[in-house]
Design goal:
With about 325 residues, the chain is an alpha/beta fold. Helix content is about 45%, strand content about 15%. The protein has two domains: about 5-205, Spore Coat Polysaccharide Biosynthesis Protein SpsA, Chain A, CATH 3.90.550.10; about 215-325, no CATH class. The chain has helices at about 20-25, 45-55, 70-80, 100-110, 130-140, 145-150, 160-165, 180-190, 215-235, 240-265, 270-280, 285-290, 300-310, 315-325; strands at about 5-10, 35-40, 60-65, 85-90, 95, 115-120, 155-160, 195, 200-205, 335. The chain has a seven-stranded mixed beta sheet with strand order 3-2-1-4-7-6-8, sandwiched between helices. Strands 5-9-10 form a three-stranded antiparallel beta sheet. InterPro entries: Glyco_trans_2-like (IPR001173), Nucleotide-diphossugar_trans (IPR029044).
């Protein structure tokens, strides 16, 4: 049996302190049939030089330079270039765990060559679930940890032919939820998926990272996310209009809760006030807040946060959250997924 070829895509932007460790975690086990593609998205620090040095002795690694367009743009460029049977995405500040390559071979064999393979150490016999079950869990209708592992585009193998057949690409302009949209598109438009009970990916948690900050751009991105989610679900025969609406409403409730947590993570009352004002001045958010109701599918804390936000009490809510966060450790940490 011929060993399946893998293409690893690393989107790179101003990550000079981490990129060499990321690359070495991959090249240490890269097979001759594989390829590593690093797409620099307009770095202004020493990332490019360090990436070049890290792949100097790796014949099947390549560095591509492009103007800044965001992580989705960099990943999409990678999808246009790679030629492996499967493609995997790795963020430049993360790393793959030792044994990732042999684990990938086993997963492909176990799955019978599935179109989407998700690695999850919290495996719960999730292969008994349909694509719709997994998508619903990603949106928030299930508390299954292993099903929710579908949120990230990392720690996954995507069959490249299936990606191109359904035209899946990352939504540029969306800075939160772009991974979920790509995965939902893949799950609802491909023939097979598989959960492998193994961990191959180390995710770095850092204070001040994109997932722990707020901005008006984040609010605009959330509106784009909801519109894209509605389009993708509406195009699927698996979803009727009432269920699409339920998905959008739950996603909006959760987005308000997430925004409150992001404000709280600033631990600064002025920034919390300014961020709250941004939300209430956003016309799309104001309209959605006015007509949306909390849903029983949301977690109680998310429903509570949403109810207070509707009453224009986002500032005291986020400040309360920030007091709780003060007792939380803020140092860098790793999570294996």
């Amino acid at each position: 049996m011929t060993r399946p070829s893998l293409s690893i895509v690393i989107p790179l932007f101003n990550c000079e302190e981490c990129v060499e460790a990321c690359i070495s975690s991959i090249t240490d086990e890269l097979a001759d049939c594989d390829e590593l593609l690093i797409v620099d998205d307009g770095s202004t620090d020493g990332s490019i030089e360090r990436a070049r040095n890290a792949i100097a002795d790796c014949l099947n690694a390549k560095l591509i330079l492009k103007d800044n367009g965001g992580v989705s743009s960099a990943r999409n460029m990678g999808l246009e270039v790679v030629r492996g049977e499967y493609v995997m995405f790795v963020d430049a500040d993360d790393a793959l765990l030792p044994g990732w390559r042999s684990a990938s071979d086993r997963a492909i064999e176990h799955s019978g060559g599935a179109d989407v393979i998700t690695f999850s150490r919290d495996y719960e016999n999730t292969n008994a679930y349909s694509a719709k079950d997994i998508v619903d869990a990603m949106i928030g209708f299930s508390n299954s940890v292993s099903l929710q592992a579908g949120m990230s585009a990392c720690s996954k193998l995507f069959k490249l032919a299936a990606v191109n057949k359904c035209g899946a690409r990352f939504e540029e302009g969306i800075i939160h939820g772009e991974d979920a949209l790509f995965n939902i598109k893949m799950l609802l438009n491909t023939d097979s998926h598989w959960f492998e009970g193994a961990s191959i990916y180390r995710y770095r948690m850092r204070e001040g990272s994109a997932t722990h900050s707020y901005s008006n751009r984040f609010l605009l991105s959330n509106i784009l996310y909801l519109k894209s989610l509605r389009r993708i679900l509406s195009e699927s025969p698996e979803y009727d209009e009432p269920h699409v609406e339920a998905c959008i409403e739950l996603s909006f409730v959760n987005s308000v809760f997430l925004y409150a947590k992001r404000l709280a993570s600033t631990r600064d009352l002025k920034m919390i006030r300014d961020g709250s004002r941004l939300l209430y001045e956003n016309l799309d958010y104001a309209q959605l807040l006015a007509r949306s109701k909390s849903t029983c599918a949301a977690a109680p804390i998310a429903s509570f946060a949403f109810a207070l936000a509707k009453l224009k009490l986002l500032t005291p809510l986020a400040f309360l959250f920030s007091l709780f966060l003060r007792i939380r450790p803020s140092k860098e940490s790793w999570i294996e997924i």
